[in-house]
Amino acid sequence: MKAWNFIDPKLGGECSGLPRPAARVLVVSWLALLATGCGEQRISADELVTASRSVTVDIGRALALPPPASFPVTGVTQRTYENAVSQTVSLATRGRTPGENAIHIAFFTAADIPEAAGVEGNLLKDPGIEDFAIAKEMEERLPGVAMAPSAVFVQNKYGPFGYAFGRGTGGEACLYAWQRLAGSDSLFRPKSGMISVRLRICDPAATEASLLRLAYGYAFNARLKRPGWNPIGDGPAPAPELGQAGAPIYPQAPQASFDEAPQRPQAARPRPARQRSSVPAEPQAPDPVSIRPLEGYPTVPPPTAP
Asked: Which positions ≥6 away from 159 have C-beta within 8 Å?
């Protein structure tokens, strides 16, 4: 019992010649050291440092999604910057061309957007849509594929965009599309933000028109909740005759898409006339007549010679 006198002062006044106040200080120090040792075994979330700043988020939190009944989403990787949030929306990949099908999208804040060069720190550079910048991106995301930029003007529901088409491994169709959306600045909205979109798709069973449909049909699934952030702009106003008297609106037949030609009724093909052979048929020899007399009938003698 004397060994525990320094822990419980009630059992004794002194321990090893130490007065009671010194024993209490020793007990408190020992308990604090014991609690510190137990606390060091626990790991907090802030102590874990990973090699990448990107995190995986739920598919429902994707900034953009492909059109329905197209390539399914397999994963979403997100990284947050001081001036932007970027995501890589991975899509199902069936081809043999190196790389993965994905939508690369970034939402920039209403703060000043840094230039493409000379940016340091946790800031995302403006990707840019210059020819050199797009060619460098295609070399990284479509290595070894000869991509030909299209000179045709195309525009989806958000605005104009550009694209390039090429043939990957085994002749599979590959498309790379880019789009930059930025609202018009004004005195009351000096910086309304910016959205950068890149679409990389390769598929062995697709055509240029079917892949281009993805660039027309993709949709945004989120926005930044910041005052003045509106890079897409306001939607168009409805037609002035909508809901007015004396302006009937009749249903219209659905129009064929850009890759579907209107089907026309095909006329029935006339049956070809049967041609008769110009070669005369060979006469068949008649069946030989039997000269043997029939049984049961009288035999008629032949006529006598004159």
From this structure: 179, 181, 232
**Residue 273 structure tokens:** 């006339």
Instruction: Say how many domains are in the chain.
Output: 2
137-195 residue pLDDT tens: 999 999 999 999 999 999 999 999 999 999 999 999 999 999 999 876 554 555 678 99
- How far, in Å, CA of 212 to CA of 201, rounded? 9
Q: Render the chain in DSSP notation, one character per residue.
A: -GGGTTT-GGG-S-BTTB-HHHHHHHHHHHHHHHHHHHHTT---GGG---S-S-EEE-GGG-SEEPPTTSSPEEEEEEEE-SSEEEEEEEE---S-SSS--EEEEEEE-SSPPPPSSS--SS--------HHHHHHHHHHHSTT--EEE--S-EE-SS-EEEEEEEE-GGG-EEEEEEEEEEPPP-SS-S---EEEEEEEEEETT--HHHHHHHHHH-EE------TT--SS-PPPPPPTTTT-TT------PPPP-TT-PPP-PPPPPPPPPPPPPSSPPPPPPPPPPP-SPPTTSPPPPPPPP-
Instruction: Give the angle subtended at the CA of 218 by the CAs of 153 and 205, to the nearest 5°.
Output: 85
Final residue before a domain boundary, out of 220, 235, 263: 220
CB of 105 within 8 A of CB of 86?
yes
Structural domain that includes position 13: 2-39
Which of the listed residues 161, 192, 220 is the one where a domain comes to its end?
A: 220
Model pTM score: 0.66
- Among residues 128, 107, 86, 97, which one has the least CA distance to residue 201? 97
User: pLDDT grade, residue 95 (50/70/90)?
Assistant: confident
In the predicted model, what is the mean pLDDT of the chain? Answer: 79
Rounded to whole angstroms, the Cα distance separating 83 from 108 reads 6
